[in-house]
């Protein structure tokens, strides 16, 4: 994502008891009708199993015998082997996800799942480039292939994921694409960045690359 498109991820709260709906848009009114495209440039559809309903509660770690305590990700190793630092991000007063301005850093949405959570989406987002720094590591997501590996690490945990799909979505609210952010459904990793075409007159990049990856086994303890 270019800096001109920093306002891409927006949360809209329907009611006090309803989970905020993550939307990816530029200057879209909170709660507006969905304008996300059908993703005609999709490489693969996300698995139906990760669909989730609006109004579900945030992910909560149910106690499990012998289970590791979930932790937020601190680093993502992309398929190329490039390590990307991960920092926790929230939303601004207007509901925009505060994506790190540094193209070499990804933001983990605090409202999502963590390493070790049994359900939901671990959502990481980063800019694809910037005018000052050029292309960032996330540019490789535009050419990612099914079966490639992404590894997340936290303070004491390690979790490997295997890419299952890459989908290109037109920018717009994603109320119909709850799998991107939902706290329910099978545990998965979702990586989001901007994708072409680029149209400065229309606010920059016109699509989003959304990569979904499934966990390989259970998380393990990191070596000291």
UniProtKB/TrEMBL annotation:
**Gene3D superfamilies, sorted:** Sortase
Q: Name one Pfam family in it.
A: Sortase
Ranges of Low complexity composition bias in the record = 33-53
From the UniProt entry, list the residue stretches annotated as the region Disordered: 33-77
Give the domain of life: Bacteria
Key words of the record = Hydrolase
> What is the name attached to this protein's record?
Class F sortase
**Native organism:** Nocardioides alpinus
């Amino acid at each position: 994502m270019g800096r001109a498109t920093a306002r891409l991820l927006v949360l809209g709260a329907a009611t006090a008891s309803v989970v905020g709906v993550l939307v990816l848009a530029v200057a879209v009114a909170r709660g507006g009708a969905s304008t996300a495209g059908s993703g005609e440039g999709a490489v693969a559809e996300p698995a139906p199993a990760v669909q989730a309903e609006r109004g579900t509660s945030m992910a909560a770690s149910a106690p499990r015998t012998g289970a590791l305590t979930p932790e937020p990700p601190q680093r993502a190793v992309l398929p190329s082997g490039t390590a990307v630092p991960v920092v926790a991000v929230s939303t601004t007063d207007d509901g925009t996800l505060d994506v790190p301005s540094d193209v070499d850093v990804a933001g983990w949405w605090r409202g999502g799942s963590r390493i070790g959570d049994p359900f939901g989406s671990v959502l990481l987002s980063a800019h694809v480039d910037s005018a000052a720094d050029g292309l960032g590591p996330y540019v490789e997501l535009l050419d990612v292939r099914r079966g490639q590996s992404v590894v997340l690490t936290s303070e004491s945990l390690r979790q490997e994921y295997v890419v299952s799909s890459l989908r290109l979505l037109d920018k717009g609210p994603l109320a119909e694409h709850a799998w991107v952010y939902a706290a329910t459904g099978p545990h998965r990793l979702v990586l989001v960045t901007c994708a072409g075409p680029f149209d400065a007159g229309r606010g920059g990049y016109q699509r989003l690359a959304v990569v979904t990856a499934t966990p390989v086994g259970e998380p393990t303890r990191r070596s000291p």
